[in-house]
Amino acid sequence: MNRIDLAGRSVVITGGARGIGLAVAERALASGANVALWDVDAERLQRTSDELASKHRERIVSDAVVELTDEASVEAAVQKTLAAHGKIDVLVNNAGITGGNGTTWELAPDVWRRVIDVNLIGPYLTCRAVVPHMLKSGYGRIVNIASIAGKEGNPNASHYSASKAGLIGLTKSLGKELAGKNILVNAVTPAAAKTEIFDSMSQQHIDYMLSKIPMNRFLMPEEAASLILWLSSEDCAFSTGAVFDLSGGRATY
Ligand SMILES: NC(=O)c1ccc[n+]([C@@H]2O[C@H](COP(=O)([O-])OP(=O)(O)OC[C@H]3O[C@@H](n4cnc5c(N)ncnc54)[C@H](O)[C@@H]3O)[C@@H](O)[C@H]2O)c1
């Protein structure tokens, strides 16, 4: 495994209680960073945070229970994180939901809106709250976890695909706004990884996603963490507003 240098960096990971977010937290701690886990699932967050803190006693592991669609909740998480770490160097916008599967005309409006709220408005709110602090310190890396669905549009997941396409658009705009400020903003577009998010999808949809991956296997959360944390490091220096593939050969552009 290559070394990624995140020594002394303070890394916020939304949806850090499990899945890809947890893999990012593990690799960040192994790379010298201190981490702040933000998640809406209070019980799971506490468990994960306690486990990571006992494994990495030399690092700071903080947590914040946050509902990412709520501005006040996001601001409270920022304040709690600043109190624990003194700064935020890296923001990984990882939390996301699928909203289940169905054709566009079958999906209910409240489900569609909720997916847009969590997957797109959430990262907008976290960027809005965190970027001013990065501007003050003159350094930052933001990584948005989009999806191959946002580039290609998966059938029976129009809400999810649209939310991730929107997140790619946010990445491109914000990347340009911050390009001269030493704050780089990039996105990754994973294909399917076997995490608890699978519980919210139909088996037919999971089979469809696997059938589209030329490597003929699922992405491993640790593989996602490698690219996400390289993009979170100083070594990523001349890429911003860019979209990085994690699709096992599925993406053709
Ligand atoms: N696993 C995959 O197949 C896959 C593929 C492509 C993209 N992604 C994206 O990667 C990211 C992580 O996915 P995962 O598989 O680890 O998912 P997961 O379901 O295992 O974990 C997501 C975490 O986000 C948290 N969360 C959800 N809504 C929240 C909210 N409103 N406020 C705060 N926290 C909230 C959950 O509590 C959970 O801990 C998501 O954005 C997902 O869309 C996943």
TrEMBL record:
<dbReference type="GO" id="GO:0030497">
    <property type="term" value="P:fatty acid elongation"/>
</dbReference>
<dbReference type="GO" id="GO:0016616">
    <property type="term" value="F:oxidoreductase activity, acting on the CH-OH group of donors, NAD or NADP as acceptor"/>
</dbReference>
<dbReference type="InterPro" id="IPR002347">
    <property type="entry name" value="SDR_fam"/>
</dbReference>
<dbReference type="InterPro" id="IPR036291">
    <property type="entry name" value="NAD(P)-bd_dom_sf"/>
</dbReference>
<dbReference type="InterPro" id="IPR020904">
    <property type="entry name" value="Sc_DH/Rdtase_CS"/>
</dbReference>
<keyword id="KW-0560">Oxidoreductase</keyword>
<protein>
    <submittedName>
        <fullName>3-oxoacyl-[acyl-carrier-protein] reductase</fullName>
    </submittedName>
</protein>
<dbReference type="Pfam" id="PF00106">
    <property type="entry name" value="adh_short"/>
</dbReference>
<comment type="similarity">
    <text>Belongs to the short-chain dehydrogenases/reductases (SDR) family.</text>
</comment>
